[in-house]
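Q: Convert this sequence to structure tokens.
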Amino acid sequence: MTTTSRAHSFNEAAAQYAANRPSYPPAVLDTIEQIMDRPLVGARVADVGAGTGIATVLLRERGADVLAVEPGDGMTAEFRRTLPDTPIVRGDGNALPLVDASHDLITYAQSWHWTDITRSVPEALRVLRPGGALAVWWNTSALDVPWIAAQDERIAHHCGVKSPSKERPDDDRAIQLAGLAGLSVTRRKLRWSRAVPLDTHLANIGSHSAFLVLGEAGARAFLTEERGRLGAIFPEGMVEETYVVDLLVAVRP
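A:
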């Protein structure tokens, strides 16, 4: 299964994605503001790979002037249902449909790894104003929580992929390229959690690309077994999900 196929798999499950994926803690945008040394109020922001608008909502709540960039049909349609008053354009980070030096911040929430960083880094530099920043982040699993670590390994084994919570080589390559481009790069890890019903937790798992490309039968087999395992751990039916947001912020001179 190609990376492109996995990236586009979300379009068939956009509503599931919007309803069940976790958001991000306020500390993410607090940290970005601190590193940029300016508030997001009034900042021109391009949220690239915006998906259903999970990060876009948070940026708008901070008072940013946000333009979303999204390549997928299904995700764009869901975004427009959720945020009808927020502009969204079709495109991706490898060829941003934005003019030179037009934005104060470019964000990639859970989407940077779908880009070719030899193209997306120069594109970000082209679009950013002097003093602007590129911020990329992911919710990753908190592997010091035993049940989460065990589930992470089961998912990787079932789907035949590397554990999604392991250190991403893309991060290090992004830092290297940003450094070569003369940027100052800061990396922070921010821990947070949410309590959700077991059904939401399982639907969240099923909305990840590794499961979407398996097909309904392959996903259902795993999720049925997982329901039994987690029902024993969380007999009241509420699952405490713990995440570590891996945040990279590169500031343009």
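Strands lie at 44-48, 65-70, 88-90, 103-109, 128-141, 184-197, 238-251.
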